[in-house]
Amino acid sequence: MTQAAYLTGQFLLAMPGMGDRRFDRAVIAMCAHDAKGAIGIGLGAVIGGLGFHALLEQFEIDPGEAPDAPVHFGGPVDMRRGFVVHSLDWSGQDTIDVAGRWALSGTIDALRAIADGSGPRRWVVALGYAGWAEGQLDGELARPGWFPVKGDTDLLWTTDPADRWQSAYRAAGIDPRLLVTGSGNA
């Protein structure tokens, strides 16, 4: 697969009927994808009953002026691990720049910075991630299930989580109501 074919900085949208209920209407922000594998953070579903303030309390961090934003279901892998997808105006010790579109941090310093007002201007917090081993995502992309779209940051920062899936399809020129859950034989 050529470098141009990798999906870092783009979004993966779940197709209807992909067969894995954990990814129903999933919107995955692809944070790394290369010959060794891929990692993405789910931003299409929130974890019911868990807000940002409750997460901060678990780390004994005063929420300060930070809004009590929802915490997202980042993916089924390592649900005890947290990630912050954020704007490029802040960087911590483990922050990675994702194709110049957004950044990804996975340490507590990002949470502290958000709470004390010195963190990124825009951010989304998620627990867990979606991960693929070497060649695994490439194989999945050869079958129906995932639809890659441009990494438009408006989808991250200005679109309500409940609307991200439909909005991303519409931005790609596809009416999601017309998508079918299976395929036929010719």
TrEMBL record:
Lineage of the species this protein comes from: Bacteria, Pseudomonadati, Pseudomonadota, Alphaproteobacteria, Sphingomonadales
SUPFAM superfamilies on file: VC0467-like (SSF143456)
Protein name: UPF0301 protein JAO74_04430
Family statement: Belongs to the UPF0301 (AlgH) family.
Domain of life of the native organism: Bacteria
Gene3D superfamilies linked to this entry: VC0467-like
Annotated InterPro entries: AlgH-like
Naturally occurring in which organism (per UniProt): Sphingomonas mollis
